[in-house]
Amino acid sequence: MRNIVLGVIAAGISAALGWVARTYLYRRKLRRKQAFFGLPDNSESLLVVNRGATGPELTVMRYDVFALLELAALIKDCNAHAQILPHDTARQGFGERTEFCVGGPASNRRMAAHLSSLLPGVRVNVDAEPGPDRGCFLVGSERYRVENGREEYALLARLTAERSQNVRPVFLFCGQTSITNQATTRYLARNHERLARKYGNSPFVLLLKVINSQAYGPDVVELVEDVTRAAQTALPAAAAPRNTHRAS
Questions:
Q1: Which pLDDT band, with edges at 50, 70 and 90, does 131 fall under?
Q2: How do the domains of the chain map onto residue ranges?
Q3: What are phi and psi of 97, to 5 degrees?
Q4: Helix 2-37 and helix 62-77: axis angle, to 10°?
Q5: Where does the chain cross the membrane (predicted)?
Q6: Distances from the Cα of 244 to the Cα of 67, 144, 232, angstroms
Q7: Cβ–Cβ contacts within 10 Å for residue 33, how many?
Q8: How far is Cα 166 from Cα 6, in angstroms, rounded to an integer?
Q9: φ and ψ of 236, to 5 deg
Q10: What pLDDT score was predicted for residue 248?
Q11: pLDDT surpassing 80 at residue 26
């Protein structure tokens, strides 16, 4: 009988220790995720999205809706809350609340402002007229053209305001097409743990390439390179692109 009792006690202690260990690991993982996204328990965040071109109402492109859903799941996992704002109504600074800004500067004024003030080494061709350079990215001296449905680029950035006491980051999802916006948010959702280990709470800017989206949608994404330094270094007055990247 004594051996049975001791066995039950030992099993109970082992189960309790296992539960404590799992709880500790879960909480540590959650805290790291919250720190990376700047989303402590019950905090507020902003989802800034572009309007569709069909009218003054808040209409969002289908792939941008999917991007918002990807981000909403991340925010919920951090036990935080989100407010969705159209880009032309988000007239406020940043740093007090984590911000997720989705869409290119041609349709998202908030994104255009962030690129201008935070990433002076990035230029995006926003010409409405069709042409080979429409939607092209210029990052430092490198030019990245879009081949719709075949080879498209996007920037994923985590940034904070310099000389600010507010430490909540702004995440930028700046794609050449709407499907690349979703691809960028999905890339973050799948790789945030690796990015947190590599960068911690430091800023970064990554150039991503979406491969053959007409066949694979937003799922096949390659990391081209870390362009943090080039993106944060102001371009000279007359920046001449050195190379042109396009689909082979």
A1: confident
A2: 33-232
A3: -130, 145
A4: 130
A5: 6-25
A6: 28, 6, 20
A7: 16
A8: 55
A9: -65, 165
A10: 41
A11: no
Helices (H), the chain: 2-37, 62-77, 109-118, 178-199, 213-216, 228-232
**H/E element holding 143?**
strand 142-144
Whole-angstrom Cα distance, residue 196 to residue 73?
Answer: 18
Residues 6+ apart with CB under 8 A from 240: 141
Q: Does an H or E element contain 244, and which?
A: strand 243-245
pLDDT single digits (tens) 174-212: 999 889 999 999 999 999 999 999 998 899 999 999 999
Under the banding of pLDDT at 50, 70 and 90, the label for residue 229 is very high
Give residue 223's identity as a one-letter amino acid code: L
Mean pLDDT of the chain: 83
Residue 193's Cβ-side half-sphere holds a number of Cα atoms within 13 Å equal to: 4
Q: Which two tokens stand for residue 154?
A: 């996007």
**What tokens does 227 get?**
């362009």
* DSSP-assigned beta bridge partners for residue 211: 151
CA–CA distance from 46 to each of 2, 72, 119, 210, 241 (Å)?
60, 10, 20, 26, 35
